[in-house]
Amino acid sequence: MFDFLDKKHTIAGAGFNRWLMPPAALAVHLCIGMAYGFSVFWLPLSKAIGIKQSLACPADVSFFNELFITTCDWKISTLGWMYTLFFVFLGSSAALWGGWLEHVGPRRAGVVSTLCWCGGMLLSALGIYTHQFWLMLLGSGVIGGIGLGLGYISPVSMLIKWFPDKRGMATGMAIMGFGGGAMIGSPLATLLMGHFASETDVGVMQTFLAMAGIYFIFMMSGSLTYRLPVSGWHPAHWNPSQLHSHKKMVTPHHVHVKNIFKIKQFWLLWGALCMNISAGIGVIGMSSPMLQEVFGGKLIGLEKTYGELDKPELAAIAAVAAGFTALLSLFNIGGRFLWGSLSDKLGRKLTFLIFFVVGGALYLSAANSASAGDKLFFIGAMCLILSMYGGGFATVPAYLADLFGTQMVGAIHGRLLTAWATAGILGPVIVNYMRDYQLGLGLPREQVYNQTLWILAGLLMIGLICNLLISPVAEKWFMSPQELAEEKHHARDVKHQEEINETDDMVKSTPLIFVLTAWCVVGLPLAWGIYKTLGNVSKFFV
């Protein structure tokens, strides 16, 4: 019944247009990227029973009791556990099932991702309806988190195989979608909640149902469009032997995923990625309060510290800080495509070197500019840092393909994403606890982030050392021709165009109008999201 999902039915013919694959990947990533924007639901959900204001639980109600209680509202800190579970299960599911993905192909993995992400939202809607938080954790947190992991890695190895000449650009386009998912999903969720809200309902359950339906259509369309080239395919104008001869960090051989944990280069890259993410994610989580507390009234032309502002003034600087957060999101997204594309010219090692050296210098100078009250330099530094944070995500799949080959890059990428799960804990903990520690010492709010920025610069220096130590992988770790042939057979790779099933649709050629339509389908929502984000950014410059 589901034979069309098999890998053998995803092999494209000689006339297939590879530029159809990036919008297919974007259709999935723009949907699962809403994981970044789930905080838009926290405030309404914290008033799901009280409607106008939260109906607080008794002080003796534990977190475990909150999972099942139906007579009071959830705390925002409790709801935040969904966000934590997203990225824990993203990393763990990508690591666990990355090898399975390589064997069954991206289409089946994409369909499973769609069912998990959208099915998880439906289960969460049931949890809202019955006011059972455990159902929301199971639905969006666990099942949805598994969908995140599979959806995140499923197009990566496919795009690397289609764009051996532009690995960084291709993965940058797809991963840009993950960063941009919240840019579309957050304003869409706000509109839907406003439409469904009533005197007796905050409208979140209905919003979950509607978004699950919309995401199902987009993700399923993208997943079913996934295609793979025949094994060893490359564009007619490109000679792979030239790449290998000019760039010693790029190998023509392949490492088996079963050996990846034994190879030092993997752990060095794991450390480099973990440090880059830890530094960036710490800023993302505290960008709004950081700007408000560091500059206070200077954001609205007043010579007042944060503690001296009255309620209307606090509201005014909060609106400015929201624009700053939106500006950071644009640099995060744009950096994914820009740095990924630049890495094709500069090389991955040099690109990561720039991230760590320039990023570390920017963190240190941002601490000085914060002390001096130089708002423009501080903002510019944070924007560049966030572009390199996003660029790390886009560049690392191509870095893996360069070092370990393309045969099992999806599975290896899945293992590497455990660095993301680790950084998701490390970065926010450093920023949040250092802030509390500094406040506890009695430091003014405008000074509490200086030491934190120095520590984040230190993390980047650790990442720099890891990156500098990365060298070409030793020959002993590469699969022999016999092992590679066995793996290709196990993965059901197709070596020749003649092996393609003649009954498969869209395998022989792809009309240009079909490619342009696909780009419009993903481009229009992305353009709308950018438009809405620019509206928030404009508040920053008023």
Could you characterize what this model shows?
Residues 502-507 have low confidence and may be disordered. The chain folds into 2 domains: 17-233 and 510-536, MFS general substrate transporter like domains (Growth Hormone, Chain: A, Up-down Bundle), CATH 1.20.1250; 264-488, Growth Hormone, Chain: A, CATH 1.20.1250.20. The termini are far apart. It is mainly alpha-helical. The protein has 19 helices and no strands.
The helix count comes to 19
- Write down the secondary-structure element order: HHHHHHHHHHHHHHHHHHH
How helix-rich are the residues, as a percent range?
55-70%
Radius of gyration: 24 Å
**CATH H-level superfamily of the largest domain:** MFS general substrate transporter like domains
Shape by Cα distribution: globular
Going by helix content, strand content and strand pairing, the class is mainly alpha
The third-level CATH topology of the largest domain is Growth Hormone, Chain: A
Number of strands: 0
